[in-house]
Amino acid sequence: MIVNIDGAFLEPEEARLRVDDGGFLFGDTLFETLKAHGKKLLFAKEHLDRLELSARLVDFPCDRKGIETALKRTARRLTSPVSRVRLTLTRGSFEGLTFPQPQTARFIIMATPAQEPTDEERQTGISCVIAPNRRVNPLNHLPQMKRGNYADCLYARNHAQSKGAGEALFVTEQGELLEGATSNIFLARDGDLVTPPAGELVLAGILRRKVLVAAQTLGLSAVERTVQAGELETADEVFLTNSLIDLLPVARIEGREIPRGSLWSKLLAEVRGRAEKEQE
């Protein structure tokens, strides 16, 4: 593991935050999870744009220039073919419930080896279950963002693992499909794409956006609209997206087989092609 706190590299066992840090006390952090191929961070600008927007919305200090420099220095130390790079912002130490002064804010970068789904795993597909809990947004007047208060996703993901599945899907009390615990979701029908709209309960995922752009490039219709969970049973194919898995087809939901199509592979090829050009 590589650890960088406020631009300084530390051994993992030496990395420390105070017990009165807002991240520990209240889960008051913002974070982004990036993927690196070799020493190249993928879609770093998009991740930092989203982080900076989230920071503005919740009055969170964000030293973008310092973070960019630290990320570049961290990337140069990566040695694995694929790495997971977690960037976390915290406001620092609290006294009571008042936000600390901006100068106490800190950022933490942690990089660890990772694995992408293999071609065989993509062909096999992932099993999903319906989450037993609800997707929540403590700041429900704002769009969904990647905040450290992650209990709903953590609980749902561990429920999926206890059932032998790879992902849990959030559904509202009204039966509306939202997203996965760690992913966005797409349905395909008659060659067209459908995905729940980003907003209060659905994260505007980086790969989600890349897929929508890829669909447009390929001349596909891509609609963001309310999706009923029952539509999963009649879809031509279903796939998940996030920055680590890219696109991963769904093979079954709650034990029920899902039809397997090929649209996901065309979109994956387009997304990867764009990523390679952006890295040139």
- CATH level-4 homologous superfamily of the largest domain: D-amino Acid Aminotransferase, subunit A, domain 2
Number of strands: 16
Domain count: the total is: 2
CATH architecture grouping of the largest domain: Alpha-Beta Barrel
Query: Percent of residues in beta strands?
Result: 25-35%
What value does the average pLDDT take?
96
Q: In terms of per-residue confidence, which ranges show pLDDT below 50 for 5 or more consecutive residues? A: none
Number of helices: 7
Distance between the termini: 27 Å
Coarse structural class:
alpha+beta
Residue share in helices?
Answer: 25-40%
Q: What is the ordering of alpha helices and beta strands?
A: EEHEEHHEEHEHEEEEHEEEEEH
Largest sheet: 10 strands, mixed
Question: Can you tell me the overall shape?
Answer: globular
In the CATH hierarchy, the third-tier topology of the largest domain is known as D-amino Acid Aminotransferase, Chain A, domain 2
Rg result: 19 Å
Instruction: Supply the CATH class of the largest domain.
Output: Alpha Beta
List keywords for this structure.
globular; D-amino Acid Aminotransferase, Chain A, domain 2; 28% helix; 6-stranded antiparallel beta sheet; alpha+beta; 10-stranded mixed beta sheet; D-amino Acid Aminotransferase, Chain A, domain 1
In brief:
This protein is an alpha+beta fold and 280 residues long. It is built from seven helices and 16 strands. Strands 7, 8, 9, 10, 11, 12, 13, 14, 15 and 16 form a ten-stranded mixed beta sheet that branches. A six-stranded antiparallel beta sheet has the order 2-1-6-5-3-4.
